[in-house]
Design goal:
The chain has ten helices and no strands. By secondary structure, the chain is mostly helical.
């Protein structure tokens, strides 16, 4: 538990606080800065108590909406091309569907088997601070060392396995799902934009699966107004984060995100020594 120099956390999750947490989820889910670390640390820094499982599931539902809005046309085009007449477009689309299945399997298995264990045993604040720095550096370093890369229509199977295995690490708070999959994509030879787009496409089935899996046990333990505020804000901010990151990567790299992760890690470490 993070030592605080304030009174005991206020258990009331107001719509305003829910909106703040929704914005945090929307930004940190898609920017390579780790949503799990932010949603764990920020409420504690502010002296708030987190809203519980149903609120967590709802926020991920908001980011799922953001993914569907941002990439809905891509999914529809892949579906139409896969069912189209024989030709290169159908072949490419079917290859892409199979690629996404292969890349999703490792993260789905890990999420089913290890999520509770990760939540219970890997929430250490020093560990989160260290992982923010380590994986932020890895993202920046791999990007700097690789060539500009390509945007080929047919990603290879090695990249599918690499990005799929990378998603397994995202269960650990402080790693960042988008950050580690983009790192794997860049290491596989994709351009920044191609790696980011593949990362977001992969996020859709894994997020949908998590929402459906956890949603079965969802109990409404926050006020409907707070729930709505968190979901709507998460979705809207998520859309802006996706579009903003893609525009950023068209002309810049990941140095700013590495610097931010280091700064957040320092805040965590310093906060641990507050009295």
């Amino acid at each position: 538990m993070l030592p605080m120099a304030v009174a005991a956390p206020d258990t009331l999750l107001t719509p305003a606080r829910a909106a703040v947490l929704g914005a945090v989820q929307g930004l940190s889910e898609f920017l390579p800065i780790s949503s799990s670390a932010h949603l764990y640390v920020i409420p504690r820094l502010l002296g708030w108590q987190y809203g519980g499982l149903s609120f967590d599931v709802a926020l991920h539902g908001g980011t799922l909406v953001a993914l569907l809005v941002a990439f809905g046309r891509d999914w529809l085009r892949l579906a139409a091309d896969a069912l189209g007449p024989t030709g290169e477009r159908r072949s490419d689309a079917r290859h892409m569907w199979l690629w996404l299945v292969v890349a999703t399997i490792p993260g789905a298995i890990a999420g089913k088997l290890l999520e509770k264990s990760a939540e219970e045993h890997l929430r250490s604040l020093p560990l989160q601070a260290a992982l923010l720095v380590v994986f932020g550096f890895l993202l920046w370093f791999v990007d700097r060392m690789m060539s500009p890369g390509n945007d080929g229509r047919r990603p290879g199977w090695g990249a599918a396995i690499g990005m799929g295995l990378a998603q397994m690490l995202a269960l650990v708070p402080g790693v960042s799902r988008s950050g580690i999959t983009i790192t794997a994509g860049r290491a596989s030879g994709f351009s920044r934009l191609a790696a980011a787009r593949l990362s977001f496409l992969l996020a859709t089935p894994i997020t949908l699966g998590a929402v459906l899996l956890e949603g079965r046990h969802m109990v409404l333990d926050v006020a409907p107004a707070a729930l709505a505020a968190g979901v709507i804000t998460s979705a809207l901010v998520g859309i802006l984060a996706i579009r903003g990151l893609l525009r950023w990567l068209a002309h810049a790299g990941f140095g700013v995100f590495f610097a931010y992760r280091v700064a957040l890690a320092l805040v965590i470490v310093l906060s641990m020594f507050r009295h």
